[in-house]
Amino acid sequence: MDNNYFGITDIGKIRDNNEDAFIAERSSANDFIIACVIDGVGGYSGGEIAAEITRKSILHYLANPEADLPLLMKEAILAADAQIIVEKQRVKGHENMACVLTLAVIDLRQNKLYYVHVGDTRLYLLRDNSLIKISKDQSFVGFMEDSGRLTEEQAMQHPKRNEINKALGFGMGMAGQEDYLETGESPFLPGDLLLLCSDGLSDMVNKKEIVSILTTDSSLREKGTQLINAANTNGGLDNITVVLVKNDNQSRIHEATKPASRPKNTITAPATVNELDIPEMQAPPKNNKNIIILLSALCLILLVACIYLFWQKYQLSYSKEPLPVKTGNGKNAQEIKLQEALHQLKGNTLILSDSIFKSPIILTESLQFEKDSLFLISKNQITIKSDSAFRGNAMIIQSANNYVYLENITFQDFNTAISSKNNALVLKNIQFKNSPNAIQTIYDLPAKGYINGKISRSSFKADSIPNTSK
Predict the structure, then answer these.
(1) What is the DSSP string of 101-139?
(2) In whole angstroms, what is the distance from residue 314 CA to residue 447 CA?
(3) How many domains does the chain fold into?
(4) Is 33 domain-assigned?
(5) Does residue 286 lie within any of the structural domains?
(6) Same domain, yes or no: 238 and 339
(7) Closest listed residue to residue 174, CA positions, set 81, 95, 96, 90
(8) Where in the sequence is the domain holding 234, given as residue range(s)?
(9) 3-state DSSP of 363-402
(10) One domain for residues 37 and 179
(11) CA dist 422 to 343, 366, 375, 410, 430, Å?
(12) b/e per residue, 160-182, with b = 16+ CB within 10 A?
């Protein structure tokens, strides 16, 4: 094996089998290094088979990489996804198998890397002793950590850290949807070190400890072994896989050159007036009355426009925050019970059981809660309906509510059912009946400074039958 790439996997201390797989090798044409970590989803039967299907698909498609390398990498992943779906349908015991992965292809001639990622495996770049996480964890906890709402330590200890949103094998054609796979490319400079790993490492070893190992003066084999040992020392709760790639090219040093100097003792004669191309001066028009009238009219129009825009901004500043609209009617018992249950909730999950909550629940005020995250789940489809005199929203999700999950709920007769403040919102089997504005999203942006970013396309979709998957 070459000295600039290395891969290793370990079963860990708890698992009975290793559902991880990896690739660390050169392409047959010897032009690229293929690095990949694949994690058969823990606890699902057939995860080991899903990982091996994906490994073989990648090696087949990348045996002789073509010019459009990113497209070829994506095709390899989509082919693996289709094969996993077929295997799930063919073998009953494999009906829940899936896998996540991070694939990187490195072109050392161009000092560049390309990657494709899905799930919670990770891609790191070590440059100048600084470790940068390139990939994003496609999970609830990963989202909270990447957005700064959880620290690394909190994310590593979170009970839902292994629950993923995306994987190969989750559904026919899902991997082909836009934005399902994370793809990208990055400079891979001389001296850079690439780390691909499964969550068996990232859940057990923090960033500081990883950096301390990667920056030691040792071989890639020794670094990989030290990372595995560190994960096992900290518990080894899952399979552990590590792939390392080093750019050992020599840095290009450009020789400095002096700027061209002007000859000394050279005196340039000043140009004479006749030699300069000076345009002939024209006398201003004698009658400016019409111009003055026109400018005055324009100024008046501009003043009226400014006053109108200021008035609009003044109005919006008072209507920006959706406020609960109260009615003269008293609250009914079901509404009081639901709002009190939200306020008194000890954890973050409220189950709406048929024995306690009777459908429909009529609202005369908007539902609000103070939890950082909320899972509101009904065992059977339950209806939350607007009182005939109520004109507010069914639910107002405040800025402090970072993540909201709703399941098996029908919102009926609301002009706007849910008002959200740029929160993470997940819906499962939610219906909106006679509610023309299902979800209203409001973004709080600072008044000063330059705003950068984008509003991603919604991933909500409508199904004719309820989703019964777990």
Answers:
(1) EEEEEEETTTTEEEEEEESS-EEEEEETTEEEE-S---B
(2) 14
(3) 2
(4) yes
(5) no
(6) no
(7) 81
(8) 5-246
(9) ECCCECCCCCEEEEEEEEEEEEEECCCCCCCCEEECCCCC
(10) yes
(11) 22, 18, 17, 22, 19
(12) ebbebbbbbbbeeeebeeeebbb
Peptide bond into 360 cis (omega under 30): yes
Q: Which amino acid is at 414?
A: F
CA distance 198 to 176: 23
Residue of 63, 66, 72 whose CA lies nearest to 34: 63
What are the φ/ψ torsions at residue 330 (nearest 5 degrees)? -75, 155
Last residue of a domain, one of 246, 268, 285: 246
Tokens of 193: 């070190």
27, 122: one domain: yes
Residues 239 and 359 in one domain: no
List the chain pLDDT tens, one digit each, 470 residues: 468 999 999 999 999 899 999 999 998 777 799 999 999 985 556 899 999 999 999 999 998 876 689 999 999 999 999 999 888 888 888 888 899 999 999 998 899 999 999 999 999 999 999 999 999 999 889 889 888 899 999 999 898 888 898 999 987 667 778 789 999 999 999 999 999 999 999 999 999 999 999 999 999 999 999 999 999 999 999 999 999 999 998 876 544 444 444 444 443 444 443 444 444 444 444 456 677 887 888 888 888 887 877 766 555 444 444 444 444 456 888 889 898 888 888 777 888 887 788 889 999 999 988 877 788 888 889 999 999 889 889 999 887 777 788 989 999 999 999 998 766 788 888 999 999 989 988 887 887 778 877 665 555 667 777 776 55
The length of the chain in residues reads 470
d(CA 398, CA 417): 14
The two three-digit tokens of residue 86, written as one number: 């077929």
Measured CA to CA, the distance from residue 373 to residue 348 in angstroms comes to 6
Burial status of residue 284 (CB atoms within 10 A of its CB: 0-12, 13-18, 19 or more): exposed
pTM for the whole thing?
Answer: 0.56
- Separation between Cα atoms, residue 458 and residue 184, nearest integer Å: 21
239 in the same domain as 127:
yes
**Cα 156 to Cα 151: distance, rounded to the nearest angstrom:** 9
296 lies in some domain: no
Contact 104, 123 (CB under 8 A): yes
The residue from 226, 246, 266 where one domain ends is 246
CATH code of the domain covering residue 134: 3.60.40.10
19 phi and psi, to 5 degrees?
-95, 5
Residue 420 lies in a domain: yes
Give me 201's structure tokens.
């490492």
